[in-house]
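Quick one, tokens below:
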């Protein structure tokens, strides 16, 4: 077109794409008031089934993983979370917001490598070393204040169990 000149936007940040760290969405964590009731609702409404159920004392939750899909790189789940203590992350979240989406868990190949890589971009890690997660996974959380308000979990699943 005469007179037309493609001009790149001047306020665009320099393009330095990071290598992809995530292999899949491992789970969406949902804070609930009643675990049994919520499980029934997901079963009868969506036809999901419970894949694993456990109490994680350190994280302060009773939780259930309901399988949505199994993929060549691991499973994806809905994680229903009920706090076992008021002063736990999910207990505080429920008191403030009521039931709803609490966090997203992304699958990674190597959780420690992913932590170091993300930390270098200036995002604060909640965990300085990986913790014990659902189904034996190694997990680490990123601070929601540095991730656009989304509490983000990195999940390195135990090979062959997800
Ligand atoms: C808190 N905030 C959130 C949030 N929780 N923002 C988005 N999503 C959430 N889920 C905001 C909150 O609104 C405040 O914002 C601010 O962060 C401080 O929140 P707080 O509760 O008063 O303070 P903290 O610092 O005690 O707790 C925040 C963090 C905590 C993120 C540090 O929730 C945490 O350690 N989370 C990681 C562990 C966890 O969530 N475990 C449960 C799932 P304003 O008011 O300052 O603007 S366990 C799990 O998923 C497992 C085991 C698994 O998948 O295997
Ligand atoms: Co989780």
């Amino acid at each position: 077109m005469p007179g037309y000149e493609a001009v790149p936007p001047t306020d665009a940040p320099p393009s330095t794409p990071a290598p992809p760290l995530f292999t899949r969405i491992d789970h969406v964590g949902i804070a609930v008031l009643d675990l049994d009731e919520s499980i029934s609702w997901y079963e009868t409404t969506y036809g999901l089934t419970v894949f694993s159920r456990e109490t994680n004392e350190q994280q302060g939750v009773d939780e259930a993983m309901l399988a949505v899909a199994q993929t060549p790189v691991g499973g994806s789940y809905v994680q229903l979370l009920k706090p076992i203590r008021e002063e736990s992350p999910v207990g505080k979240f429920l008191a403030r917001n009521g039931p709803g989406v609490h966090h997203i868990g992304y699958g990674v190949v190597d959780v420690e490598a992913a932590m170091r890589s993300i930390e270098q971009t200036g995002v604060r890690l909640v965990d300085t070393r990986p913790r014990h997660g659902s189904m034996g996974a190694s997990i680490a959380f990123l601070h929601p204040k540095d991730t656009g308000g989304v509490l983000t979990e990195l999940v390195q699943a135990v090979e062959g169990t997800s």
